[in-house]
Amino acid sequence: MTDETLKIRALSGRAVTVPMERPMKTAVGTIPAAPLVLIDIETEEGVAGRAYIFAYTPVMLRPLVAVVEELAPLLVGKAVAPIERMREVEGTFRLLGRQGLLGMALSVIDMALWDILARAQDLPLVRLLGGEPKPIPAYDSYGVIDPARDREDIERTLESGFRALKIKLGDAGLEKDQATVAALRDLVGAEIRIMVDYNQSRSVPEAIRRIERLEDYDLEWAEEPVPAEDLEGHAQVRAAVGVPIQTGENWWFAQDMAKAIAAEASDFAMPDVMKIGGVTGWLKAAALAEAASLPVSSHAFVEASAHLLAVTPTAHWLEVLDKARPILQRPALIENGMVTPQGPGLGMEWDEAAVKRYAA
Question: Exposed site from 2, 102, 128, 170, fewest CB < 10 Å?
Fold first, then answer.
């Protein structure tokens, strides 16, 4: 089958709440389970594509399903041509803007359309994009931890071959931040990379004060120390501390990334495929990063991110925050601390029994 024959027949969304192996505690709250919206796009020719949205909170599940399904009339009957479809919706929503729920819905639709194109040719997406399936260095992503209480989990992470892990900070005072990082460094040793994430919870002066106290622990990066939209604040923190600054998971489409690069807001880039514009948006972001010599890491969405990092010239780290594992027939392939993209397409098949079990 050639992709020229493919036309969109239907689009649907389903809400699920999936249990997480490790509930994610952050400086601004706890996520006990993953609220996801599953997207299915069917074609007249019988090839179907799928992807999912992380809704952050169950409150957003019903609105997200509604937004996705209300977009169907803009797509049904048209060719599976994600770049053209994204160009059309950019014009349609020019006055409204594409942030928030709409941006998430457009991004996931783009992902599902690319999934269809690759499946039609029985290829993993990475090959359709001109790359090769290869192992991508990954880090295990934790929430707020207690190094003593969570010791066994951390040791399992290391035994699994991970050479890096990330923890959340900022839920309490500076002394706790420092004690946590010091204990974790003692536990994992000098060779394991440690990332810390403040989840936008600090002011600029407080972020500088805290990160300065962590400089002796050889951190890979400090992530989103101040509100994501405060690009100048990120740049101020970056200029003042000796730890590299990471941001990007809240950039909306490549335009936000261009603004962050111009502001010199970070040492690294972390686009989120659900906010950056799906596969189409990620490819634009990867080009910007290459031009700016910014190492690119992923945020969540381990299945799609493995394909995209494999074709990203400045690929850095893949985040393993495996929210969809319980509802997939073939979860992400993680071996020796690395993730290899699977196919066909994005490599995701719903486990319908699990989807029914976790239906929201």
Answer: 2
CA distance 7 to 1: 12
Residue 29 reports pLDDT greater than 90: no
**CA–CA gap between residue 190 and residue 71 (Å, rounded):** 50
Using 50, 70 and 90 to split pLDDT, how confident is the model at 257? very high
344: preceding bond cis by omega (within 30 degrees): yes
321: left (phi over 0), alpha (psi -120 to 50) or beta: beta
Terminus-to-terminus CA distance in the chain, angstroms? 36
Please give the Cα distance from 15 to 33 (Å, whole number).
13
* pLDDT at residue number 27: 77
Smallest CA-to-CA distance from 358 within 9, 3, 12, 37 is with 37
Report whether CATH 3.30.390.10 matches the domain 3-122: yes
Decide the pairing of beta strands 164-168 and 193-197.
parallel
What value does the mean pLDDT take over residues 258-276?
98
Residue type, 139: Y
Residue 4 clears pLDDT 90, i.e. is over it? no
* pLDDT, tens digit, 9 for 90 and up, residues 66-116: 999 999 999 999 999 999 999 999 999 999 999 999 999 999 999 999 999
Integer Cα distance of 303 and 132 in angstroms: 15
Q: What is the three-class DSSP state of 165?
A: strand
How is domain 127-352 classified at the architecture level of CATH? Alpha-Beta Barrel (3.20)
Q: Which residue numbers are catalytic?
A: 168, 299
**Helix, strand or coil, per DSSP, at residue 188:** helix
The residue-averaged pLDDT of 206-234 equals 98
Please provide the average confidence, as pLDDT, over all residues in the chain: 96
Stretch(es) of the chain classified as CATH 3.20.20.120: 127-352
Pairing of β 48-54 and β 29-43: antiparallel
Are residues 324 and 18 in contact, defined by beta-carbon separation less than 8 angstroms? yes
Q: Please state the pTM of the whole predicted model.
A: 0.95
